[in-house]
Amino acid sequence: MDTGCLSSMNITGASQARPFAGQLPQRCFATTHHSSFSVRNLVLRNKGRRPHRRHAALQVVCKDFPRPPLESTINYLEAGQLSSFFRNSERPSKPLQVVIAGAGLAGLSTAKYLADAGHKPILLEARDVLGGKVAAWKDEDGDWYETGLHIFFGAYPNIQNLFGELGIEDRLQWKEHSMIFAMPNKPGEFSRFDFPETLPAPVNGIWAILRNNEMLTWPEKVKFAIGLLPAMVGGQPYVEAQDGLTVSEWMKKQGVPDRVNDEVFIAMSKALNFINPDELSMQCILIALNRFLQEKHGSKMAFLDGNPPERLCMPIVDHIRSRGGEVRLNSRIKKIELNPDGTVKHFALSDGTQITGDAYVCAAPVDIFKLLVPQEWSEITYFKKLEKLVGVPVINVHIWFDRKLKNTYDHLLFSRSSLLSVYADMSVTCKEYYDPNRSMLELVFAPADEWIGRSDTEIIDATMEELAKLFPDEIATDQSKAKILKYHIVKTPRSVYKTVPNCEPCRPLQRSPIEGFYLAGDYTKQKYLASMEGAVLSGKLCAQSIVQDYSKLALRSQKNLQSEEVPVPS
């Protein structure tokens, strides 16, 4: 649940605001600008909304690749086994009513798997949109704009299982098995890492690296490989031990050349956690490399075929409701009210209603949850350690151009610019956003610490400067070439938790020390860190803890009910 934000839309001067959570000190702005805005003091002449696309008889020409065979991988099988735990668990004599705050992927996952186990989740979302960090909105032209640029990897076994369980596997558009990087020293050119389909892991990844001679020289590759040897030999214990070092510190310690940082790690760090290598924990990089190199299709990417709320979140909601669960929007948690013994009495909503249950889950982002922690819990170590976990700011930019850009791919692209992380031409990569005549670039602006408070015009100016380098023949900063029809900017001051060194010991287990209270979210303890996969896995682990605690929770609920029924002496 990406709460704590205010969304505003500026359309040719008019402003309209919608309340989000109103709980974080920072605010999140989603802004829309049409073609009457000024960029570098240039006022565009084409006024009004961009022409509507015809939505009938949609013809898609983007080339998708077959879904990779993931079912035989160890991680996929383990994820499937965890899913079967809920379907095969003993049906409860009296289902638990579990109140869950936050309908992001973590909350949706928790509710889905509790419903699979025969319990009744009541999922509460503060905003009027599903998805949390994968939320999206439709503008007055019918175009969607999203919180972030979301990629589904082959190394996301719980998400891949979830798509299969919902029967929506065909909604993932798989791309060729490559990683494509822009070349800053050669504007308009790209360098590729192509993973051969005929080779097993990790040989296919090693082959992709060895075949690329544009980004790293052979001596640099050798030194990089030597630096990684301890991780290959030491396995998971070594990876976990690197949480105390930043990427930059680890490189210096291992004697890895600085150019590896410039050519590879800056792009990886910004794509993984929206921060630079001098801040990111090396553990994060090693976990990603392990997933991508140890599984043949681990780094293979897919785009969702449309907007996440409708194409991913609603099928989960339908599944939950079909099994007796509830999902309520515009239901903001104001306070966690406690019993005299310190357990949860109910969730108090901002509209004055009180929601009670047999168990309670907070699946909000860590920054929101920290504001909701009752004073009575604040000195408990489990909750106190959360202070080190802080969300990282990120800005997502969408720009609609008046023409089809040619210097792009049907794929995710690593910009390797100082201001941008990754980007994609969504008019090519995504079926719902397909447009044969105009490009829509979606770009992640990161790191965003210094930009989150700046104006939209400043952000667009800076983005256009970077795009002029990526598209030297097609985009100019003064818009003398491709012209902007409109743009959306979505600012998230607190996104995924910032994976800086020594955060790992602060990540909480899903089962809290408070009986009947649980947490879900990518910041909680699970092996996929801050990601969509991590959010879904955290929800499964949270649901598993509740199912395992069924007898205790049912007994506690029965005692509470009996105490309420005891007559008061006259």
From TrEMBL:
Similarity annotation: Belongs to the carotenoid/retinoid oxidoreductase family.
Q: Name one GO biological process term.
A: carotenoid biosynthetic process
Give the first-level EC class, as a single word. oxidoreductase
GO cellular component entries = chloroplast thylakoid; chromoplast; membrane
Q: Which Pfam families match?
A: Amino_oxidase (PF01593)
Q: How does it sit in the membrane?
A: Peripheral membrane protein
Q: Which GO terms describe its molecular function?
A: flavin adenine dinucleotide binding; phytoene dehydrogenase activity
Which UniProt keywords are present, listed alphabetically? Carotenoid biosynthesis, Chloroplast, Chromoplast, FAD, Flavoprotein, Membrane, Oxidoreductase, Plastid
Q: Organism source for this protein?
A: Sorghum halepense
Tell me the gene name: pds
Q: Where in the cell is it found?
A: Plastid, Chloroplast; Plastid, Chromoplast; Membrane
Q: Which SUPFAM superfamilies match?
A: FAD/NAD(P)-binding domain
Cofactor dependence is on: FAD
**NCBIfam families the UniProt entry points to:** phytoene_desat (TIGR02731)
Q: What is the lineage of its organism?
A: Eukaryota, Viridiplantae, Streptophyta, Embryophyta, Tracheophyta
Which Enzyme Commission numbers does its entry carry? 1.3.5.5
Q: How does it assemble?
A: Homotetramer.
Its pathway, per UniProt, is:
Carotenoid biosynthesis; lycopene biosynthesis
Per the database record, which ranges form the Amine oxidase domain? 105-546
What is this protein called in UniProt? Phytoene dehydrogenase
Q: Which InterPro entries match?
A: Amino_oxidase, FAD/NAD-bd_sf, Phytoene_desaturase, Zeta_carotene_desat/Oxidored
Query: Which superkingdom, per the lineage?
Result: Eukaryota
Q: Name the reaction it catalyses.
A: 2 a plastoquinone + 15-cis-phytoene = 9,9',15-tri-cis-zeta-carotene + 2 a plastoquinol
| Main localization (coarse) | plastid
